[in-house]
Amino acid sequence: xxxxxxxEDHSVTRRGVREILHDAFGDIEVGEAxxxxxxxxxxxxxxxxxxxxxxxxxxxxxxDVLHLVRSIDGTVPVLVITAATELEYVVQSMRAGANGLVHxxxxxxxxxxxxxxxxxxxxxxxxxxxxxxxxxLQGGGQTPLESLHAKLSERELEVFRRLxxxxxxxxxxxxxxxxxxxVATYLARIRxxxxxxxxxxxxRYALQNGLVD
Length: 213
Known about the structure:
Rossmann fold; 6 strands; globular
């Protein structure tokens, strides 16, 4: 049975997301956390398949909350839910280890698509957000980083490029004829060797260094 955790301080929002989850995925377990303390308690109750995390949680700063999640479970997919539109929040979210970001005003079907994609090991950004990031890069953002990919083995680089193209873990496993667990191992090695912790950082680096079209 799939297990989803909703970390959101507004009970009405939690109820709405819970109903969307049950409608889309059927027989699932849905946990809830209304603040950092209850989130930490829920993280200790076994493995979650996805965490839907509000960007503003009572009991700690947003970065503190994401770091807490990653310190307890470094691989659980995290989809950030926010009403904020500033690009800064998006970048901070991804750098801190989030796998995707959605806005609270989005339609239910788009939320379900984001959940599916992130739960399967991919990433998700709203089209408007992705466009804003692209404009930021085109407008003279940071210069390309050092050749971090030179540290990767040939197979690690193959996985790296597919991650940068937005391929999910299961898709990469199918592409390369290996298991999901092996892909996850390669991903851990990539993060360790390059210091690029999120899918957005990997994609940005790959684009800046001509590793993907």
